[in-house]
Amino acid sequence: MCIFHILTFVFFNLPYTYLPLYNEARKISTSWTGLILGAAAVGLTLACLFVAPIAINKFSTRIVLSCSSVGMGISIFLFSLMDLVKEGVAYTIFSIIFRFASGVFGGVINVTIFAAYVAIYPEYVATVTSIGESVLNGAVAFGPFLGGVLYDASGFVAASLVPGVLIFLCALPAFYLPSLNSKKRRAAEEETSLKTLLDPWVLFPLWHLASAQILISYHMPLLSPYVDEAFDAGVVWSGAALLVSTAVICISSPLLGFLIDKFGPVKMLLASSVLLPPVYALIGPNPLLSFIPASRAQIIIALALLGLAVPMACISALPVMFQVYSSRNGGNLPIIIINQLVSFYCASYPIGIFIGTMVSGFVAPYASFAWSTGSLSLIYIAQSILCIAYCVNVMRQANAPAEKSADTYVMENRGADPGM
């Protein structure tokens, strides 16, 4: 399953280093580049919310992963052929369509794998999701670097085609994965799913997760042109710089997951809200921080610190939602709710990525790298204040007596059918 995560998100972030430069050579505006990059995130989001829950309820894990691998491989192959399309409008439209399609298949793969993680190890939600995050972010980190290397060596076609072929080939070994079959839901459980959609206290961690993804994706399309102009550094260097950020995520995530399971997820969510604004202010750096000179070393250090702060928000989100839902519903946490929250959890990533890449594409022509990233760090202070207030309220509620804790539910339902 880890292989599917790696290959899926290698492609997802592969074009971030080379596509802005490639489109600039084709006279495609940064706004359209943002749309092309963000189209995969839109498809992934819609798949997580609507397609994946239906697929994993009707078919076995092996069938879902195999079919999704074939579909994603084909869509990536078609995207690689866009180099042959010389007309600008046709290139843009078809690029958006094929990126969107690959995002849909990638979203189904992502939800299926995360739901399997949580179902197999329900008592270690943060730990197993942190391992999944390490695998996922390893692909996210390696994607821009590999994209820069392939584009620098062989051009647009090779940079897109290589991961597409690998994903397509994964369809065959997927049939040998363990099968987690679905089972019928009780009507009472189906009715409780509506509460999940309507309760902002349960869903708030998803927005905090998405906002963290906005931060880590906003500068990705901007970094390569910026370092090329400011430091005469090419796409390989910018890809390596982004590799540092998500390499830190890969290394720190398992430790953070262990700490969350041991000491509680709300405290980690609170810590992330405090750290993210000052850390992101260092990316530009914020022009208000005039005592920090812009340099290659400054970018590397800031990206490494961001790689430590972002997973604190992301990994803690899912167990916080489990805890809040359980405490607000008499200690009950049905399997159907777990799967629904996992779907929302997976959808929050591409939502944040889409917003970040879209906004950066529109802002790029009007603001410098330092001012755009610095302004975002100041805006994010409002989100941090909101998250701090949320965490304080949740911790107060946790001190109140409950009929049954989430841990009690987990122990009672160990080994239950994951609903897949």
Layout of strands and helices, then pairs:
Elements: H1 2-13, H2 15-25, H3 30-58, H4 61-80, H5 88-120, H6 125-154, H7 156-169, H8 187-198, H9 200-218, H10 220-230, H11 235-263, H12 265-281, H13 296-328, H14 335-363, H15 369-398, H16 406-412
Helix pairs in contact: 1-5, 1-6, 1-7, 2-6, 2-10, 3-5, 3-14, 4-5, 4-7, 5-14, 6-7, 6-11, 6-13, 8-14, 9-12, 9-13, 9-14, 9-15, 10-11, 11-12, 11-13, 12-13, 12-15, 13-14
Q: What is the averaged pLDDT score?
A: 82
- Chain oligomer state: single chain
Structural class: mainly alpha
Radius of gyration, in angstroms, nearest whole number: 21 Å
Strand-residue proportion: under 5%
Unreliably modeled segments? 181-189, 402-420
The count of strands amounts to 0
Measured between the Cα atoms of the first and last residue, the distance is: 15 Å
Taken from the alpha-carbon principal axes, the silhouette is globular
Number of helices: 16
Q: What is the helix/strand order?
A: HHHHHHHHHHHHHHHH
Report on the structure:
80% of the residues lie in helices and 0% in strands. The protein has helices spanning 2-13, 15-25, 30-58, 61-80, 88-120, 125-154, 156-169, 187-198, 200-218, 220-230, 235-263, 265-281, 296-328, 335-363, 369-398, 406-412. Helix 1 (2-13) packs antiparallel against helix 5 (88-120) and helix 6 (125-154) packs antiparallel against helix 13 (296-328). The longest helix is centred in the N-terminal third of the chain and has 33 residues, at 88-120. The two termini are 15 Å apart.
